[in-house]
Write a structure and sequence with these properties.
Layout: H1 7-31, E1 35-39, H2 45-51, E2 60-65, H3 69-76, H4 80-86, H5 91-103, E3 109-115, E4 130-137, E5 141-147, H6 152-171
Parallel strand pairs: 1-2, 1-3
Antiparallel strand pairs: 3-4, 4-5
Helix pairs in contact: 1-2, 1-6
Length: 172
Amino acid sequence: MSTEITSESQSDNATTILNLAAQVGKALQDKGLILATAESCTGGGVAQAITEIAGSTAWFDCGFITYSNASKSELLDVSAALIAQMGSVSEEVAAAMASGALGSSNAHLAVSTTGIAGPTGAVPGKPVGTVCFGWANADTVHTERLVFSGDRKAVREQTVIHALQGLLRFID
């Protein structure tokens, strides 16, 4: 079942995303930390939200859009064997993406997103809307797997919101 997104809810999500990005920026700046992103299903949406905030150059290093499995391996050093074993939409791959972003950047922490935004791509056990997240620093990696509802745009917006909310928790 698909949820229709109205222009009003799109506007609300855009405001929420910008507010969260600003909060993330303040939290990073307060702690002297720099962020990198590693995104698949969001196609750079987290990095776009971050860079909407003036002055983000002080706390954002770079973003990796690794949509294909090959780019996950080449740019983020995610093992092809891991992708083959667990699938690109898995907490294990999300963790490896976040860790890989740290290793390929000057960041202190990273967030990753990998999922099935739809309308196609579902596989057994991973319906459309399945998204895995990773948040990593030098000491730890935290992952989550959620299933969002709605159309492709709704899944991607919810993913950006959750990634930013997770960053706020991870920074603290």
